[in-house]
Specification:
The complex is a heterodimer of chains A (about 1100) and B (about 375). With about 1100 residues, chain A is α/β, with parallel strands linked by helices. Helix content of chain A is about 35%, strand content about 20%. The relative contact order of chain A is 0.07. The model of chain A has no long low-confidence stretch (mean pLDDT about 90). Chain B has 2 domains: about 150 residues, Glucose Oxidase, domain 1, CATH 3.50.30; about 210 residues, Class I glutamine amidotransferase (GATase) domain (Rossmann fold), CATH 3.40.50. In chain B, the strands form 3 sheets. Chain B has a 10-stranded mixed beta sheet, sandwiched between helices. A 7-stranded mixed β-barrel of chain B has the order 1-2-8-6-4-3-9. In chain B, strand 13, helix 8 and strand 14 form a beta-alpha-beta unit. Chain B starts with a strand and ends with a helix. Classes of the chains: A alpha/beta (about 1100), B alpha/beta (about 375). Chains A and B meet through helix 9 and helix 15 of A and helix 3 and strand 15 of B.
Chain lengths: ~1100, ~375
Amino acid sequence: MPTKPSKVLIIGSGPIIIGQAAEFDYAGTQACKAMREEGVTSVLVNSNPATIMTDEDVADVVYIEPLTVDMLSRIIERERPDGLLPTLGGQTGLNLAVELADAGVLDRYKVRLLGTPLQTIRNAEDRELFKQLLLKIGEPVPPSQTVTSLNQAKQVARDIGLPLIIRPAFTLGGTGGGIAHDMDELMEKVEVGLRASPISQVLLEESVIGWKEIEYEVMRDAANTCITVCNMENFDPMGVHTGDSIVVAPSQTLNDDEYQMLRTASLNIIRALGIEGGCNVQLALDPKSSKYYVIEVNPRVSRSSALASKATGYPIARVAAKIAVGKRLDEIPNAVTGKTMASFEPALDYIVVKIPRWPFDKFATGDRIIGTQMKATGEVMAIDRTFEAALQKAVRSLEFGKRSLLWEDPGWERGSDINTYPLMPPNDLRLWAIMAALRRGITTREIADHTKIDMWFLDKLQNIIDMEKTLLAEPITRDLLWRAKRLGFSDEQVGTLADRLPEQVRGQRREWNIRPVYKMVDTCAAEFDASTPYFYSTYEQENEAEALRENKAVVIGSGPIRIGQGIEFDYCSVHSAWALQDAGYKSIMVNSNPETVSTDFDTSNRLYFEALDEESLRDILENESTAHTGESTDNAPPSIVQFGGQTAVNLANPLANAGMPIIGSSADAIDLAEDRKRFELFLDELSIPQPPGAGITSLDEGLRIAEIIGYPVMVRPSFVLGGRAMEIVHNNTDLKRYIGLAMELDASHPVLIDKYLQGKEVEVDAIGDGETVLIPGIMEHIERAGVHSGDSMAVYPGVNLTREEIDTIIDYTIRIGLGLKINGLMNIQFVIMPGSEEKKSSVFVLEVNPRASRTVPFISKVTGVPMIKVATRVMLGSSLKSQGYSSGLWPVSNLIAIKAPVFSMSKLTGVDTHLGPEMKSTGEVMGIDYTFEAALAKAIVAAGLSLPPESGVLFSIADRDKAEALPVIKKLAGAGTKIYATEGTALMIEAAGVPVTMTSKKLDEGHPNIIDLINDGTISGVVNTLTGGNVPFRDGFYIRRAAVEKRIPCFTSLDTIRTAVATITGGSLTYTVQPLPDYRNKEPS
Amino acid sequence: MPKQAILALKDGSIYEGYSFGTETDTCGEVVFNTSMAGYQEILTDPSYAGQIVLPTYPLIGNYGTNKQDIESRRIQVRGFIVREKCDMPSHYLDDRTIHEYLAGSGIPGIYGIDTRSITRRLRSAGVMMGIITTSKTPHEALEELKKQPDYGSIDFVRQVSTEKAYKWEEAGSSGYHVVALDCGLKYNILRLLCQHGCHVTVVPCSTSAEEIINLTPDGILLSPGPGDPDLLDYLAETAKGLVGKKPIMGICLGNQILHKAFGGKHFKLKFGHRGGNHPVRELATGAVHITAQNHGYAADPATLSDELEITHINLNDGTVEGLRHKELPIFSIQYHSEASPGPLDNVYLFKNFINNIQKFKEG
């Protein structure tokens, strides 16, 4: 057996994108902990600052640098690790390991690849090699053929027959994949697939659409001991990416023969691949014959393994990391029982349901059909003792307003014919559509024939429908309410059906003593005594979660990852739990997201894996109340609502109204910041300016206000999340359209109209305790106001701010913090309108969020101020002064850090990519260095926005932006870039004396047009500013989509391209490579 | 409305649920099994004779029942305790629901109760006698339990063993002749022996060593079976008479019979090993095997004969999981190499048995 390495490099997965999300922060964090336990030094590299794994007390050495071969080579040269662990950073980690090996870096520095052999990474990713390997060990694969051209694809279609599945090699989350039913579709999809594959190779294989999709998570150690952690069955049969499928664990419809047959196949595969660690095997099972095929293998930890870890309590990533440094499964204790070893297979005594969280609430024009291309940004998980209850809890966890399974889209035809329901092709609303169809008498059999969803699942849905009907028809008795709760009906649903208020249902439950009990996730189905503090609610007899006796507080998590509420809030929740423990409190975490560090059972003292809604929280708080008498809110522990994003903040009022204590800023302070009218009065009293505007509840009122303040105006609903449905409106027509839509969105909240000030945007994060307001950092946005702050590049510290502007920002922040009696964190966004010689620039407040913002991890890391810890201590009563902080701005060091957004647009067909007030990014990266140029270059590279030198860049610029674009174009042309432009833009460029190639913008007037040039690689970057309005599907839209699908940078803000250009024309730029804390603590050398 | 039923345990605890299967009362030792699939195999496993079985997995009956997932000619459990029974199963092989299956054999069940709570009780207090009843009050049920003989006082092997010898052959099973001593045999042992080319004669548990040798076997299999091995002197006698004559493989109770044949004693485990996830270490190689298990007694290593050695131990509690004769081609395992239900990782042991037979024949 090889010796244990002493220093291991761990590659993170980079920014959060669709197909590679928070699960890899969870995996990387577990790996770092495992290294520490094994006495191995961990060196972690990731470009994503919003991660726990990049905390300086999680890994031993932390680099936040772009994930490129060049950068990793320099880190390896500097750190000299003797091992590289590539299996915890998703596909990014594996791909980089292969590139480092190919570049000879691993050999040169004698770095051993741990966990998965290099050949295995190649075998599992190269479709043809993989197929040969499986056939050699006698495991069946669907007949298939690898192709690299359209002609080859045609031949395969003749040999195997259609429909065919298209799977590009080496892509994330199935990018560029699809199903083709006819030859035209095949040609179209193979072309896309070849482009998506970095080696221009796709696999075409026999379609097993409609078969059961089953996954196994298996582990193997160097002694060849193999175990299965968990198997999972997809509600959605083959044809839907597993990341986009509703999934249950364990499998429900497999008998033991089938279960063991597929288990054995999975173990055969992990043995044949020689993996030392974890592996995910996806299989298709014929529902009519027990015949199966192996579909895919991921030789690394994955999203599914994170789900399996949370579903079973078995920490796959941690065990995989230990195996990689030489431990055997039977030497690793099972942390759950403390008595048994990791060499066993978890037994579940509950059912787990996962539902993906799709971003279509944000992207109205997005193509909602789901298939082999993953589109979900996140997922929720729920645990219960019946499928019905687990499913309904998972639906509640999705946090789509109050959309339970009772919800139906008013646009559905909803007739007696099955075709009036959007069941096929699969889409994000299919679950609700099935319910609607069942509700109107379509049979489970008809639906099964139509969708191939297993009857077992459909019969369970029918049980839910039957209970709905009973609740509608019969008087509520104790027995009926008990049965409804056991099927997962919320008080809200029962109330809707039985014509009561949710609070009345709750009162009835209290009277009849119908309360959830909490059962433990213990890996062993209660066979052994376990001490895991990991619980789920269910309606049963015995409660296993006695209220903790010690001082304690509840941290409310942020739920599923979605656009606008990402991993940053999990970072905050985790740090708050840790800070509570540091302060001598027991921390209780509540969250519904299986991908995260916060739902690791050893992050907090107790974990409730539950939906984040009023009912769940109140039940949990009552369970944690030490006096179970009377109103039972006596002695409920305090809740912390400011770290879980808008999800947690939205619970402040309901919990406060229910008499539950909240620590940190009060529910009233939150309301004051979010209520337009109250907030306006508040700022007036402080004489702090904000853009003129008002909250309106009718169209007439809106038009009147717009007239007073003048166009353009910014419009948005109140209580926003990630700028949902926010728009810049230039005229009455657009305003009418917007108000029509917005009022439909939510009639109970007003629409906010503000004067749109196109100035420089600045934001601050601050911590207040009522006396002192600490400002750890000020960030200046590269894109001017109007681009959502989450989609803007942000520079710390502000580089173009005057002393006076900074002082004003500090003054406003302190006064707002004191005025709102902020207790804990807040984030303020400002816009600065430029001044002139006679007039000073002016600072306006755009918005105040009385909670942690998405920049908290970024600012914590670059300033070294442990913001969440400080804020949590403030909430527990330690003043900022007593913690050694005073009012004002934390001193800046020599570093410059730039946060850049990262998008997942190539996965979301039909979505327009232009930047605007609606947030669209899914993740972020950080570039850090001692100069602005170097930090910027790193951010640009890490965000995938580099323009290769001497390439072609296309400009299509709106008239009002033309003059401003010219200097950028000149600079690019001067650097050797070939300039292409559409008609009007080309004329302007030509007039300025810059050589330009004019291309036709009109896509329907012959070839080659712009899209052809993008597709054939002539153009490697696009700059396109919006002509105005928000009308989808104009030519500009298709140009932007073509760029995104070709994976070339597409700039829709001149501010961004100006910045990007600065990096390519800087000549030979020198940049620093060093651990994160060195930037803060050391002078540049 | 389904009929209410109660489960009463010897320690006085009462659980309320609903009746399924047959509406009769039943008594037995209540045990739990942590397998997540394979309920039909469990129901028909003769080693559960005299017991009421509780699967810890809450959803039972999802894929119905069929004619092939059987391990003996009938349901062997006394009763069945589940959180939820599935009335709408889904599987291409399904022909009866779990309710119909139990009712068809006159076996009662109870559903809708907190099976995890019962498991926790059995785990901490140990397995104990229980009663499922639809007719008795809790008090009457507990009184009835007092009248019941203790599980450990009954020889269940005689109740489950075949009355007459029979042959089991499948296509291609023309090779070695194995005699299986039926103490509560599972069909999958026979299926696997045939798959390995053997043909099998199954004989009743009362068959003597001499009668077995007269059948001219190439190898002898001591089968699994129910109950306290220390009651089974006659089987130990039989085994003693077979030692040295032919290669022997023992499974589960077969392991204990072998131990007993060499003078070993057994002790009752607090809550047994029942499930498909038990890790076992093979001492010779250090390899860890995931095994299917179903036993309530364990061999006491302190009473192990010098002629035998321990080959396997359980990683959870260190108990004996396998024995071998130091010189003769005799080995046994406490777990179920035939799986059914459970992982197929240990089927290779049949191959080892066949190899022993081959070597023995070659002399």
